[in-house]
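Protein modeling request. Please complete all fields; requests missing the sequence field cannot be processed.
Requester role: graduate student
Desired output: 3D structure, token encoding
Chains: 1
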Amino acid sequence: MNIRKPILVVLALILLCCNGCSTVTFGYNHADWILRYWITDYTSFSDAQRQEIHLEVDDYLRWHRKTALPEYTTFLQDLNGIVNREGALSVGDVMHLRTESSKLYQLTMAPTIRPAARLLAELDSRQIEELADTFAERNRKQRKKLLQGNEQEMLELRAERHVEFVEGLVGRLSAKQEKKITGMSLQIPFASRDYIEQREAKQAMLIFLLKDKAGEDRIAALLRQWITAPEITRTPLQQQSIAAYENAMNEMTVRIFELLTARQKQHLGEKIVSYIDDFRKLNSGTEAANTAYGQTREK
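Delivered output (299 residues):
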């Protein structure tokens, strides 16, 4: 439920999390530990719950390696074709890639819904209060990071993040490119507050269900709605603000692509290809990973 869709949003899902292909492999091969740590950091779980989390994470990563990685590869191949073809990038291209990245997100998250709902339904009152406190603290930190200062200061900070993001994908930008990207970003509607408020409302809904002992099915339905139709929970003003932001970002992505030099486009293409190669290698190890996993579970 993080704020999504920064500049060149269609790349963020796959490319922003790591700086190099070797990092992808390292991170993926340690994803079990990372996921368990991330989950257990939300509240204090019992030993039995921690064991359940351990097994569920193992099952999820086996599924992810076999099923999700090939879909990531297909998406990146599609993206690479668009980046390297002759002619300009269009808003239609960006919307297509945005739609496909949303499908990848839903594919990735769908298997987590039922296990998460089952675990959440088991939380006692103390654990629920700890979870609510964790939500509040993380929201406070994100508000401090993204909503500090007056509106102009927030826009300038966002512009800096946009420049850094683009530079991380295409290599060093010229002073002229940085200035143009900054100018574009300053004109984009500011929607960070709407995303944060929407997330906080969702979290409040979850905490209410947990305290009400709503049960696994109702919790799963809520999580599924968040993943497949996040716009349902937006107020009319949030819907208008976020739609204006996303439309402007589509246009901005096209304009930034026009600014790139041939070398920068090549750099971007090489980065995409490196991820394709990494995902293929990780996927090719599925059978060996499954065998090792089966032997471990049998002990």
